[in-house]
Write a structure and sequence with these properties.
about 300 residues; alpha+beta; 10 helices
Length: about 300
């Protein structure tokens, strides 16, 4: 897979300055799964059709004017678990994951790993899912638009400083329209881990460190480790102070759980052969934030 940093940086500049590109392709390569094993007495075909429709929505629509070759498409996963299906109303939860390649390696790192538990929408088998970000047509397409823009925003941020701003802005528009719909999962302060809270964890002024960490951890940290492991890891160690600052100003922020679920296992491996001072520094930052993850944190402290 080709490395996408230069492409993303150029695309961001081009979009901002020209507003158009003649060579465009779909941005996402999204694996979609709909699991309805908890639902009894309903034909499986409705869920099979829904799964294919969601996959087509992510993979066949274009959500930007950036230029992507087939090998550069952003890898993501969207797992919907259906807990109830009553009439046309589907309730459940969604696990979303986003990943990106590391420069000049076969390693893929996780950018986002989040479980959305506030998921409800109306769907009848065969209902068309039509991309429209300017009006609120239904809650399902609003949810899909939100995550498509979130995927793009996070991915672009990991390649250039605040490179994903336009996508967070578009996700914010989706949230604003959905908040007046009465659907769950969108309202500010309704829940500390709903979609509104997730977006705020990337866009609120006091959470700016989250986006700085996205760039420094991935572009200046992991991408540098292929040629200079010590230099790249040192950047990551310094970058962990950003998550420490988030904890100080917003200890209940969903950004903290997203970082844990996306990065803690990776950090265990990253620090396995680090010098004692670096492992201790990382442990002392992370331990107060994640006291219940002592087993993994102890591995960081002790190394291999």
């Amino acid at each position: 897979m080709r490395f996408r940093a230069l492409r993303n940086i150029i695309a961001t500049i081009t979009i901002a300055s020209a507003g158009w590109l003649t060579s465009v392709a779909q941005e996402l390569r999204c694996t979609v799964e709909v699991n309805a094993s908890q639902v009894e007495g309903t034909s499986r075909s409705v869920f099979e059709t829904l799964q294919q429709s969601i996959a087509d929505y992510f993979n066949e629509n274009r959500f930007s004017t950036a230029s992507f070759s087939p090998g550069e498409r952003i890898e993501c996963r969207f797992f919907l678990t259906v807990s109830e299906y009553d009439g046309d109303r589907i309730k459940g939860d969604i696990q979303v994951q986003l990943s990106r390649p590391v420069y000049n390696s076969t390693y893929t790192t996780t950018l986002l790993n989040f479980r959305d538990t506030k998921v409800e929408f109306d769907y009848r088998e065969g209902d068309p899912l039509i991309f429209n970000e300017t009006t609120f047509d239904n809650n399902l397409t609003a949810i899909l638009n939100f995550y498509a823009f979130l995927f793009l925003g996070i991915d672009f941020d990991s390649f250039s400083p605040e490179g994903g701003q336009q996508f967070y802005d578009r996700a914010a528009t989706i949230v604003q329209m959905a908040q007046s719909s009465g659907e769950v999962g969108w309202k500010a302060f309704e829940d500390t881990k709903n979609r509104s809270a997730v977006l705020s964890s990337y866009t609120d002024a006091n959470m700016a460190g989250v986006r700085r960490l996205l760039y420094n951890y991935h572009r200046k940290g992991l991408d540098e480790m292929v040629t200079s492991p010590d230099k790249g890891r040192a950047v990551i160690t310094e970058g962990l102070k950003e998550i420490e600052n988030v904890y100080k100003v917003a200890p209940m922020s969903v950004a903290l759980s997203i970082f844990r679920d996306s990065k803690l296992d990776e950090l265990v491996n990253l620090y396995s052969k680090a010098p004692d001072a670096e492992r201790t520094a990382a442990y002392e930052i992370l331990q107060p934030i994640y006291p219940t993850d002592s087993e993994r944190l102890d591995k960081i402290k002790k190394g291999s």
